[in-house]
From TrEMBL:
Highest taxon of source: Bacteria
Keyword DNA-binding among record annotations: no
Native organism taxonomy: Bacteria, Pseudomonadati, Bacteroidota, Chitinophagia, Chitinophagales
Catalase core domain span: 32-420
Gene3D superfamilies listed in its UniProt record: 1.20.1370.20, 3.40.50.880, Catalase core domain
Species: Niabella yanshanensis
Protein name according to UniProt: Catalase
Chain segments carrying region Disordered: 1-22
Enzyme class: oxidoreductase
Function according to Swiss-Prot or TrEMBL: Decomposes hydrogen peroxide into water and oxygen; serves to protect cells from the toxic effects of hydrogen peroxide.
The entry's keywords: Heme, Hydrogen peroxide, Iron, Metal-binding, Oxidoreductase, Peroxidase
Any GO molecular function: catalase activity
Enzyme Commission number, as recorded: 1.11.1.6
Length: 710
């Protein structure tokens, strides 16, 4: 003991000394595999030709992703924080000319689904409201087996090749030396990586937009991200992209509001989804497809296999083919939402893959990561993961085996079991991979058709409303303002110059910088022996300058499921409150009476009115709109500082505000006259006008109106 104590007193921590032997800073060293082999190209997976399929023999890809998949247990490395629900999918019209998948040809079927929504970067204990991509994964329990459509609420991704996925996630995760910041991309390592990967520029526009801070999981789009294949009964293939369109529209919160919600209720989205289903306000999405024939594959100024690109809806309209409804909450969060295992390789006859190099890597990664998370190869036997068709094969044993197989035969072919279970012919529903011709050299390379990194980023920015553009400018300024290394900030600003000149100059001015024209931008994906001149990026001229579908300004606007705060105090006009609440509920909204104290308040006729929440336990950021109820005593609420703050904060976040004549006394104190006269503020108690304002969701033009800080 004396020796150990002496070493501590001398400033020598025995544990720290022990760890030094396992520490390396890699300074000046070559990149190599875990077997010591020097790596020549860490940017591209091994493919059969530049646009060909990724090869299983790529031991570098498999080693890198295998290690990545097994880094943490048991929570998911990405998409750890999730919310889930059960539901069903119904098909509007048969797609038999394009696919033989019964899911998309049988209009009489009602297919069960389980959907898991998630954030990407944060841990299970992080908030629901970071600026982040949202996962949108759907498991269809079809009669032909499970089909997983594993996507996001953004239609593109940061990278083009799966080999870079561990690098992306390592960059966006908390910095490893101090595990800071949690669930946030506003730090040096993320933007350092992005600054070296121009292919991320399109996705970064989406991430800095309001799409990254959705109002509700029920109010965001979903996308399959990749281009997949449909295969019909004649074995003819078409390309397809999948879209989920929410019937409540696509809506967001303000960034300041998102940060406050995280402090008031970090389970905001999870609670919102649960409550909506629990109250019978079932979330609904229509499934849309963009179908491109094989003959049309090369008719676009971008590559269909590039996961950083969309097909603008003006070029190929989205065809809505069915509807998904979520109508049942899980019985047990862990057993269902946490243990469900998705995989883009879970497909059914009539659906197949393309050579998208990001998709090809995902086909390996998802099964591999479940081996760590769910304790071995039998995760398919967990109830939430079981298929409707009973499983018959020769796989045996392993950890957590549930199925009890009879007999002594566990191999194929056999005679002792009469050859059972049999192989299924294609006509009997047997899966048959699409017979794509492959004639190419084995290379680590990327097709030049993937080198346009800026045209679609510009398309997205040009498609936004003025308010949405302002939010993107502010988001870049906020995120880069958190970056400590000026050279990283400068690099991103310079890259923004390739997207939009005004955007670059506004962000640069906010950071105290000047944007500079980059040397010829390169792909960021150059192997050690590669020629930089061969990797110059370029910018295609797109046939559309802007796309209406990319702006949330053009979305559905509806009062249904909106949360309305009714501010009241003693002396509230009881009959008027009842009528107001009834009208709002009949229109589909949810109303809560908010008062200075919990329990009950007295109405003007002496009746007791139940209070749902007091100002002490709630906040305006948890509501979509505010109405100041009619009172016989106009001073009780006006003298309440919490009520004044509630209204001023709601105005700051551009929400609908309603008041009767008596409620105006509170408005006069909480808001300047200019604010009271602005859009979305109803001062005459007109219920119909207030409901129309609530349906608009937000009045973003009010961001320019000065108001006392809330």
């Amino acid at each position: 003991m004396e020796d150990n104590n002496k070493s501590y007193h001398n400033g020598n921590d025995p544990k720290a000394e022990q760890l030094k032997a396992y520490t390396s800073n890699h300074q000046g060293e070559y990149l190599n595999t875990n077997q010591g082999l020097k790596i020549n190209d860490d940017q591209n997976s091994l493919k059969s030709g530049e646009r060909g399929a990724t090869l299983l023999e790529d031991f570098i890809l498999r080693e890198k992703i295998t290690h990545f998949d097994h880094e943490r247990i048991p929570e998911r490395i990405v998409h750890a924080r999730g919310s889930g629900a059960h539901g069903f999918f119904e098909l509007y019209e048969s797609l038999e000319p394009y696919t033989k998948a019964k899911l998309f040809t049988d209009t009489s079927a009602k297919t069960p689904v389980f959907v898991r929504f998630s954030t990407v970067a944060g841990s299970r204990g992080s908030t629901d409201l970071p600026r982040d991509v949202r996962g949108f994964a759907v498991k269809f329990y079809t009669q032909e087996g499970n089909y997983d459509l594993v996507g996001n609420n953004m239609p593109v991704f940061f990278i083009q090749d799966a080999l870079k996925f561990p690098d992306l996630v390592h960059a966006v995760k908390p910095e490893p030396h101090n595990e800071i910041p949690q669930a946030a991309s506003a730090h040096d390592t993320f933007w350092d990586f992005i600054g070296q990967m121009p292919e991320s520029m399109h996705m970064i526009q989406w991430l800095m937009s309001d799409r990254a801070i959705p109002r509700s999981l029920r109010m965001m789009e979903g996308f399959g991200v990749h281009t997949f294949r449909f295969i019909n009964a004649e074995n003819k293939a078409s390309f397809v992209k999948f879209h989920w369109k929410p019937l409540l529209g696509v809506h967001s919160v303000a960034w300041d509001e998102a940060q406050r919600i995280s402090g008031k209720n970090s389970d905001f989205h999870k609670q919102d989804l649960w409550d909506a289903i629990d109250q019978g306000q079932y979330p609904e999405w229509e499934l849309g497809v963009q179908i491109v024939t094989e003959e049309e594959e090369h008719n676009f100024p971008f590559d269909l296999l590039d996961p950083t690109k969309i097909i603008p809806e003006e070029m190929v309209p989205v065809r809505r083919i069915g509807k998904m409804t979520l109508n049942r909450n899980p019985d047990n969060f862990f057993a269902e939402t946490e243990q469900i295992a998705f995989h883009p390789g879970h497909i059914i006859p009539g659906i197949d893959f393309t050579n998208d190099p990001l998709l090809q890597g995902r086909l390996f990664s998802y099964t591999d990561t479940q081996l760590s998370r769910l304790g071995g190869p039998n995760f398919h036997e967990i109830p939430i993961n079981r298929s409707i068709p009973e499983v018959h094969n020769h796989q045996r044993d392993g950890m957590h085996r549930m199925q009890i197989n009879k007999g002594k035969v566990a191999y194929n072919p056999n005679t002792l079991a009469g050859g059972c279970p049999f192989q299924a012919k294609m006509a009997e529903g047997g899966f048959h991979s699409y017979e794509e011709r492959i004639d190419a050299k084995k290379v680590r390379a990327r097709s030049r058709s993937f080198f346009d990194h800026f045209s679609q980023a510009t398309l997205f920015y040009n498609s936004q409303s003025e308010a949405e553009k302002r939010h993107i400018q502010n988001a870049f300024s906020f995120e880069l303002g958190k970056v400590m290394v000026e050279g990283i900030r400068q690099r991103i600003v310079d890259m923004l110059l390739e997207v939009d000149v005004d955007l670059a100059h506004i962000v640069a001015a906010n950071l105290g910088l000047l944007p500079k024209k980059l040397p010829q931008p390169v792909t960021g994906s150059i192997p050690a022996d590669g020629d930089p001149e061969a990797h110059h990026s370029f910018k295609e001229e797109l046939p559309v300058a802007a796309s209406e579908a990319l702006s949330m300004q053009n979305t559905i606007r509806d009062i249904r499921t909106r949360r309305i705060a009714l501010l009241a105090a003693d002396g509230v006009t009881g009959e008027a409150l009842v009528q107001l609440k009834s009208a709002l509920v009949e229109a589909g909204a949810t109303c809560k009476v908010i008062a200075p104290k919990q329990g009950f308040i007295s109405s003007d006729d002496g009746e007791l009115v139940k209070v749902d929440e007091s100002f002490l336990i709630t906040s305006s950021v948890l509501y979509d709109a505010v109405f100041i109820a009619d009172h016989s005593n106009t001073t009780l609420l006006a003298d309440c500082k919490d009520a004044l703050h509630f209204v001023a904060e709601a105005f700051k976040h551009c929400k609908a505000i309603g008041a009767t004549e008596t409620g105006n006394s509170l408005l006069q104190i909480a808001l300047p006259q200019e604010a009271i006269q602005s859009a979305g503020v109803i001062t005459d108690g007109n219920t119909g006008a207030f409901m129309e304002a609530v349906a608009q969701h937000r009045f973003w033009e009010r961001e320019e109106t000065p108001v006392v800080a809330a």
